[in-house]
Amino acid sequence: MRNREMEADLERSRLSKNMIGKSPVMRKVFDTVSRVAPAKASVLITGESGVGKELIADAIHELSPRKGQPLVKVNCAALSASLLESELFGHEKGAFTGALSRRRGRFELANGGTLFLDEIGEIDQNIQIKLLRVLQERQFERVGGEETVETDVRLIAATNKDLKAEIEKGNFREDLYFRLNVVSINVPPLRDRKDDIPVLAAAFLKEFSAENGKNVEGIHEKVYSRLYAYDWPGNIRELRNCIESAVVMCRNPLITTDDLPPALQSVTDTEDSVRVPLNVSLEEAEKLIIRAVVSSHKGNKSKAAETLGIGRKTLLRKLDDGEEESP
Fold it and tell me: Are the C-beta atoms of residues 216 and 205 closer than 8 Å to each other?
């Protein structure tokens, strides 16, 4: 698949600047994002590591009335309990050793906008109590302070943990869970949305070609067979790294199987067959077969159409390929 076809497919599959998908499961996610974005309700985003939970938060903010205000992000797993409390709520001068001046926390910095708390399942019980109060009363005190600070923040949280299981274990407050989970969005793993691989690969190819100053025109059809056959334990993050590596290693106009990283090199394919995963749509399975036949004819779409028993225009339409008629 070359750039023109990839670009057209990419633009049809874009919800926001960085949120891309065409699979039925992602279309449902996009519909939820579009409906919840204009509201003020808290949102809980769940899913495995690497599926793009932060991008969902970005899209909600981008599509909301708060888009002109700050979007502030905190990785809750990256900070100790004491540091996280100060990070979220700020502190007064002298609140603890090293607190040489008053410092505003993320709730103040995000006032009027959106606060995204990633890895919410990692926060300490004491901070959970304070966070619950902010959600209920829209106010808090800085660490070491007595002044009550009002806040107008739309809260979005994300986790790769099962918070209901954490509640059963006594690690997470049930009342906080219900405050966070006004609207729930579960982002499926890449293995369950393989229809999205072509458009995601196109976006990453465009990004890393520009970043590395390379004119990579597209991706060879045989590469897609490998991409579809792989299970992607690292999800979108792993696919992104794969395409970046392939762009760096590529010496030709098209990325070929020789450019893929070792994990993809070990995925087997054959010259006279194409692997069609069971969890892709009929439309994408058809495209995968058509691309393989086109590849077997060295890109000659007229011959590919003849082999498949369809007209060339039908073949181009099924591939969403708007190129001019050529041999």
Answer: yes
Residue with tokens 């959970």: 128
pLDDT at 303 over 90: no
For residue 117, which phi and psi values (nearest 5 degrees)? -105, 105
Type of residue at 279: N
Is residue 272 predicted with pLDDT exceeding 80?
Answer: no
CA–CA gap between residue 67 and residue 38 (Å, rounded): 10
The pLDDT tens digits of the residues spanning 173-207 come to 999 999 999 999 999 999 999 889 989 999 999 99
Q: What are the structural domains of the chain?
A: 3-11+193-318 (1.10.8.60), 24-189 (3.40.50.300)
The percent of the chain in helix, strand and coil, each rounded to the nearest 5, is 50, 10, 40
Choose among 184, 124, 126: nearest CA to 156. Answer: 184
What type of residue is 176?
L
Amino acid at 62: E
Which tokens belong to 21?
């998908």
Q: Report the percent of the chain where pLDDT is more than 90.
A: 57
Q: Phi and psi (nearest 5°) for 44?
A: -110, 120
Helix spans in 155-275 (H): 163-168, 174-180, 197-211, 221-229, 235-249, 262-265
